[in-house]
Specification:
Radius of gyration: 22 Å
Number of strands: 12
Largest sheet: 8 strands, parallel, barrel
Distance between the termini: 32 Å
Strand order of the largest sheet: 1-2-3-4-6-8-9-12
Structural class: alpha/beta
CATH class of the largest domain: Alpha Beta
CATH topology of the largest domain: TIM Barrel
Bound molecules: L-rhamnitol, zinc ion
Order of helices and strands: HHEHEHEHEEHEEHEHEEEHEHHHHH
Amino acid sequence: MKENLIQKAYEIAKERYAAIGVDTDKVLNQLQDFHLSMHCWQADDVKGFEVQAGAMSGGIQSTGDFPGAARNIDELRSDVLKAKSLIPGSHRLNLHEIYGDFKGKVVDRDEVTVEYFQSWIDWAKENNTLLDFNSSSFSHPKSGSLSLSNPDKGIRDFWIEHTKRCREIANAMGEAQNDPCIMNLWVHDGCKDVSVNHALYRNLLKQSLDEIFTKEQPMMRDCIEGKVFGIGLESFTVGSHDFYTAYAAQNDKILTIDTGHYHPTESPADKVSAVLPFVKELMLHVSRPVRWDSDHVTIMDDPTQELFFEIVRAGALDRVHYGLDFFDGSINRIGAYVIGSRSAQKCMLRALLEPTELISKLELAGEGYKVLALIEEQKAMPWTAVYDMFCLKNNVPVGDEFIAEIEKYERDVTSKR
Ligand code: RNT
Ligand code: ZN
């Protein structure tokens, strides 16, 4: 798109927003400060690079076999950089433990050390990227249905050791980048069918977490993620939303809200103001559940938009971390990253452009219809001109121009894999 057109449109938008008390220049700066934590696992359908990697398990599934998935660490790095070059702003990269640089060695999960992440730390530094981290309980012979809540002490201890080591690695990443590395803990633990031992499993999970978190790791932060159910574990989930909300509140942990981890009619957005009086910070896993936790690519749908509105309206911008978590293997994976990231940004932009103070005053004064009117009017305000300006300022393609770039990369790189 022509630069002067984008500028003209932006000037008009700026005036329209100024008329309702919104400063678009300030919002552009706020958006620049909005950093996504891009998940590495969209690039290869959550396979990772363990030499001994087996089939995917743990209740998650990536469907589709679009050609060009990253097969090794170099391909994944190149894909992530390509995607980043098409997303305005600066963004973190979120690694799972199974994405270590194992250099052809079989390294079991209870043996992993920071040495296998040194090349990631170096790469991140070279590419001006901050890292986040995850322990990986799935796709392993000891995953079964229960990991940290397994009554078998041997298996439980194996996963406790793994998770402790992951915290060490996250802490080392945090030290190296001089910015705390955020480590997410999600385990798939659950039951396929009826069980009379719910309390036993939950008590064991609590005990395991207590042990894992004993050691202070000053340059990392822990976040914990619950869910409704995993495939093959439909009847019961040990780490439910209530379990982790209570644990986070009691133990000062960051609570992860994955938008696919609630009942289909439950609103993840509504969790924000409900838990913020009790937990200091939130981590988001922005995803898109289609009928279940299908992890479709994030789009600007109502639940996602509502989530970002709730964060801004709660004045909680500095208390939320913004992870993405989708993995669609049926479409071009770079395209998936770019669409999902840009859509999350657009939702945040629209939330930042809302004249919340004005609407809030009207609401408190009992001016019901005006509240509704203003909220409806916002939907047709020229926020797109502000996003185009944001792309222009960040030197990335404006509008659908990124498609041509992805096509070229597909032609030159991913289609040859
Ligand atoms: C699974 C959780 C979890 C994973 C990643 C791979 O339901 O959402 O966050 O998607 O850790
Ligand atoms: Zn998640």
